[in-house]
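Hi all, posting the design record for the shared folder.

TITLE: backbone redesign
STEP: 1 of 1
STRUCTURE INPUT:
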């Protein structure tokens, strides 16, 4: 596996890959890789001839007071994991390769980026859209893979690709990959490493409470009632607060009062100083 840390090296390595012919998939990450990321890489390998992974902890998607400095950075370990999965090229840019000193451009996607994590983390999705657009333009992949744990992020990226007529990749080639869960159901996340053993155990109540709420909703229950119960369960199970628990249309992300046949449940809640998010289909 080649590793590129400058744009010049990236371009050289990509042109060598392209000489071989075949398709290129991009798997963008911020590192601290877990089984969820490796699942993205495996899916990418099934669908493309060459896989490029990127690791860049993007400062523009962290708000003031968020965990930018504490975010786990473990490039050596990540790079070994990616190599073992058959990744051809690792793009791990130094910050100035993404944001040179006079960098001035922002991409802002309205609509799907509002509400849910957009309400709690102002500017977060601008940062995501901006860096993903840059990564797409730097690598020019035929396809790209993102985890569905960040369902709203995926919706933002697809809308950006559609609205800006991106061709590499085309919106139809931006693929979502199902959430990978621990054996107790907790969605895998780089932030799970922040949890104390006690908080980690309590955190498993999140997917359990979501499944209970989904049974109620799928049985025709009102969102208000089922989501109110869900919040109560989380607070009595050790969560400190619930940022949101909402029923939304899976595609438009419009808020729903009852299951419309395409509903998804979205939750963000805080435990021991860590913010966890999850989402599940209702229909
Ligand atoms: O999901 C992530 O890890 C990040 O938001 C992404 C897509 C790599 C952009 O920095």
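Okay, here is what came back for every position:
SEQUENCE:
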């Amino acid at each position: 596996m080649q590793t590129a840390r400058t744009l010049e090296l990236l371009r050289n390595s990509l042109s060598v890959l392209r000489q071989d012919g075949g398709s290129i998939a991009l798997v963008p990450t911020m590192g601290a890789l877990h089984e969820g990321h490796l699942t993205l890489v495996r899916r990418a390998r099934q669908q493309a001839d060459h896989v490029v992974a990127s690791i860049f902890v993007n400062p523009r998607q962290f708000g003031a007071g968020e965990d930018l400095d504490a975010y786990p950075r473990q490039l050596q370990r990540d790079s070994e994991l990616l190599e073992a999965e058959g990744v051809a090229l690792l793009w791990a840019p130094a910050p100035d390769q993404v944001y040179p000193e006079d960098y001035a451009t922002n991409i802002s996607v309205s609509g799907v980026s509002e509400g849910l994590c957009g309400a709690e983390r102002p500017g977060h999705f601008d940062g995501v859209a901006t860096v993903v657009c840059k990564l797409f333009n730097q690598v020019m992949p035929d396809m790209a893979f993102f985890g569905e744990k960040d369902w709203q992020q995926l919706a933002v990226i697809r809308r950006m690709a559609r609205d800006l007529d991106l061709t590499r990749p085309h919106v139809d080639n931006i693929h979502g990959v199902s959430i990978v869960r621990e054996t107790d159901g907790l969605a895998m996340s780089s932030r799970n490493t922040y949890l104390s053993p006690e908080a980690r155990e309590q955190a498993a109540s999140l997917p359990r409470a979501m499944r209970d709420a989904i049974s109620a909703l799928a049985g025709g229950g009102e969102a208000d009632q089922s989501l109110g119960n869900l919040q109560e369960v989380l607070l009595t199970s050790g969560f400190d607060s619930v940022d949101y628990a909402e029923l939304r249309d899976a595609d438009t992300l419009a808020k729903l009062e009852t299951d419309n046949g395409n509903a998804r449940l979205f939750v963000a809640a805080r435990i021991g100083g860590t913010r966890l998010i999850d989402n599940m289909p209702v229909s």
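COMMENT: The mean pLDDT is 97.
Let me know if anyone wants the other runs.
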